[in-house]
């Protein structure tokens, strides 16, 4: 190796060539494995769900009864799908205004020295494992809501049509509303983080011009920042929605695992992910297949929501890149 | 003053106040959750937790040793499989795949996998590994975690490699370095802090994951290092213990929860510090 003769040179070159193509193919195959994972998920869910699909067909989608112990088992997706959609919806209704409020606070109002600590705190909120949220919801938030907020709302809304049903029934530690609130806290950091990022893409000149003609902070946010970043904010919100739809452990703890559709948001319910988490390990046969089918439904649902979110964010990136 | 000014001033002040309230609301949750964890978990946090196995039902002595070891093993294997794969995939997207029509598709699918529900990953591994192997196993749990690690690392690796200035690569290529060495010796080195950050964040993400382990690794009451059998792990142990009627189990669950949260937060903060160190340059 001391003397680099012509022979060594040829050898080194071919070694380089070999190393190059090995490395290239290693990276390429790894990249393609990402697609294989997606394919694997879809195929294994379909295989697992196949017996249930053949047994129930589309009736699965509008059957409310969930009786895996019956003979033959009766399985319907209405309860979990309803719970999934309702909890995510309420969670988003809480998390969107709060998340955007925090983003506005962080980008427009907050003194510079406070920006980092608050930003980090919000991001740490996203790092806490979801089972911790579940325990906290079960032992702290649930009892608190059942003792204070729920009786209060029930008393106010008693006798009022519609509202009386939505906020009706006995207060409960385990309810759709409690699950929604926990979900809202969990997705808050996603909305805030993306909103802060897209708010920063607003050219300072635009904001300065608006301040220059005498706009108040609120007017600048409403008429300059939000319209400029609308697509990005919607993308962030849909990303958060995708998270909320599939969140498992936090919800499993506090939703009560009741397979029914109830008008009251203070009643126990279930979601797709909670149903799978609490029943799958002890299930077999058609019951297990039914849970797989629920999983497939959830995956399709989140896939479209997340794909929509990514397309929105991509559009914003292209706009920013122009 | 003109009434319009007063009205605009008023709505501005109200909105400012609401934004402040929202920020306090957000930080308050973190404070309350951490307070509850410390309040319930700190009393039980002693040496026994790290030296003894999980107790049988009703017993009042024991720790979380088997669960901690199991969690560390599964997380390490999961990251050990997922991180290199994700790094390579990210490398392809950032370095080779610029003109490949497949790259945008891979990037898009990766972004979706990044936020896919973790319970679905659990179902996937159940169908792909647990059923063919005829039983719950630690390796199935580790694979489920690896599937969660991959998209996180792909994303950060690609982003970080893109930040490496092109003249560096051009200079290396001009010296006659083959492409793979340009990437390994130049691009990886200058993006090192970012790449480590990505791996740390991915570790933090899977360290507390419970849903994908519920029906892949299951849990085990005993100490086991056998990858082909079910293995105890912290998240599932916490999940089982906290819902039990035994006070000592609950106490252990809270201590375990505190342990996991501190680990995850430390990883998060560590990752942030590494990437912050690089920024001012």
Layout of secondary structure:
The complex is a heterodimer of chains A (322) and B (281).
Chain A: H1 6-56, H2 59-62, H3 78-109, H4 112-127, H5 130-157, H6 163-166, H7 176-199, H8 204-212, H9 217-246, H10 249-254, H11 272-279, H12 285-321
Chain B: H1 3-41, H2 47-51, H3 65-96, H4 102-114, H5 118-133, H6 138-163, H7 166-174, H8 179-190, H9 192-207, H10 234-242, H11 247-278
Descriptive notes:
The complex is a heterodimer of chains A (322) and B (281). Chain A is an all-alpha fold and 322 residues long. Chain A folds into two domains: 4-56; 61-321, MetI-like fold (Orthogonal Bundle), CATH 1.10.3720.10. Chain A has helices at 6-56, 59-62, 78-109, 112-127, 130-157, 163-166, 176-199, 204-212, 217-246, 249-254, 272-279, 285-321. The longest helix of chain A is centred in the N-terminal third of the chain and has 51 residues, at 6-56. The radius of gyration of chain A is 26 Å and the shape is flat. In chain A, 46% of the residues are buried. The mean pLDDT of chain A is 88. The model of chain B has no long low-confidence stretch (mean pLDDT 89). Chain B has 281 residues and is mostly helical. In chain B, α1 crosses α11, α5 crosses α6 (138-163) and α6 (138-163) packs antiparallel against α9. Classes of the chains: A mainly alpha (322), B mainly alpha (281). At the A-B interface, α1, α3, α4, α5 and α7 of A face α1, α3, α4, α5 and α6 of B.
CATH architecture of the largest domain in chain A, by name, is Orthogonal Bundle
Indicate the low-confidence ranges of chain A by residue numbers: none
The secondary-structure class of chain B comes to mainly alpha
Instruction: Summarize the amount of helix of chain A as a percent range.
Output: over 70%
How many strands of chain A? 0
Overall geometry of chain B: globular
- Sheet having the most strands of chain A: none
Question: Portion of residues in helices of chain B?
Answer: over 70%
Question: What is the count of β-strands of chain B?
Answer: 0
Give the integer mean of the pLDDT values of chain A: 88
Strand content of chain B: under 5%
- Report low-confidence residues of chain B grouped into runs of 5 or more: none
Largest sheet of chain B: none
């Amino acid at each position: 190796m001391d003397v680099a003769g012509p022979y060594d040179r040829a050898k080194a070159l071919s070694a380089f060539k070999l190393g190059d193509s090995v490395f290239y193919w290693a990276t390429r195959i790894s990249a393609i494995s990402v697609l294989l994972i997606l394919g694997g998920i879809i195929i294994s869910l379909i295989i697992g769900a196949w017996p249930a699909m053949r047994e129930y067909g589309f009736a699965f989608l509008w059957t409310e009864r969930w009786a895996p112990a019956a003979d033959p088992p009766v399985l319907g997706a209405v309860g979990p799908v309803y719970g999934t959609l309702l909890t995510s919806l309420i969670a988003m209704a809480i998390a969107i205004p709060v998340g955007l409020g925090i983003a506005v606070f962080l980008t427009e109002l907050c003194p510079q020295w406070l920006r980092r600590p608050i930003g980090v705190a919000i991001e740490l909120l996203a790092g806490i494992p979801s089972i911790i949220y579940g325990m906290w919801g079960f032992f702290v938030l649930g009892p608190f809501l059942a003792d204070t907020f729920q009786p209060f709302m029930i008393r106010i809304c008693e006798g009022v049509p519609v509202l009386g049903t939505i906020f009706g029934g006995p207060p409960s530690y385990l309810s759709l509303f409690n699950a929604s609130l926990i979900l809202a806290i969990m997705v808050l950091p996603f909305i805030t983080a993306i909103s802060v990022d897209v708010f920063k893409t607003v050219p300072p000149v635009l904001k300065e011009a608006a301040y220059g003609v005498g706009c108040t902070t609120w007017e600048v946010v409403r008429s300059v920042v939000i319209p400029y970043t609308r697509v990005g904010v919607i993308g962030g919100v849909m990303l958060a929605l995708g998270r909320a739809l599939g969140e498992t452990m936090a919800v499993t703890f506090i939703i009560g695992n009741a397979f029914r559709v109830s008008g009251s948001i203070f009643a126990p319910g279930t979601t797709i992910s909670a149903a799978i988490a609490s029943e799958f390990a002890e299930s077999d046969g058609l019951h297990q297949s039914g849970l797989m089918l629920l999983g497939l439904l959830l995956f399709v649902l989140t896939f479209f929501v997340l794909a929509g979110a990514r397309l929105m964010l991509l559009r914003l990136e292209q706009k920013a890149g122009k | 003053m003109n009434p319009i000014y007063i009205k605009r001033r008023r709505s501005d002040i109200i909105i400012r106040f609401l934004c402040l309230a929202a920020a306090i609301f957000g930080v308050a949750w973190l404070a309350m959750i951490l307070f509850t964890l410390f309040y319930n978990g700190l009393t039980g946090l002693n040496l026994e937790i790290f030296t003894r196995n999980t107790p049988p039902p009703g017993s009042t002595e024991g720790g979380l040793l088997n669960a901690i070891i199991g969690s560390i093993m599964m997380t390490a294997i999961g990251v050990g499989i997922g991180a290199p794969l994700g790094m390579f995939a990210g490398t392809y997207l950032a370095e080779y795949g610029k003109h490949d029509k497949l790259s945008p598709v891979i990037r898009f699918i990766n972004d979706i996998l990044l936020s896919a529900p973790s319970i679905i990953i659990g179902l996937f591994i159940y169908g792909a590994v647990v059923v063919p192997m005829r039983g719950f196993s630690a390796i199935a749990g580790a694979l489920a975690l690896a599937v969660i690690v991959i998209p996180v690392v792909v994303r950060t690796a690609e982003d970080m490699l893109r930040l490496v200035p092109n003249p560096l690569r051009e200079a290396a290529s001009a010296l006659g370095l083959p492409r793979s060495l340009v990437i390994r010796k130049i691009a990886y080195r200058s993006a090192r802090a970012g790449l480590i950050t990505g791996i740390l964040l991915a570790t933090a993400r899977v360290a507390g994951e419970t849903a994908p382990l519920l029906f892949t690794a299951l849990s085990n009451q005993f100490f086991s290092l056998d990858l082909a059998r079910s293995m105890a792990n912290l998240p599932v142990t916490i999940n089982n213990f906290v819902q039990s009627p035994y006070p000592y189990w609950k106490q252990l669950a809270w201590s375990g929860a505190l342990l996991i949260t501190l680990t995850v937060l430390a990883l998060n903060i560590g990752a942030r510090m590494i990437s912050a160190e690089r920024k001012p340059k």
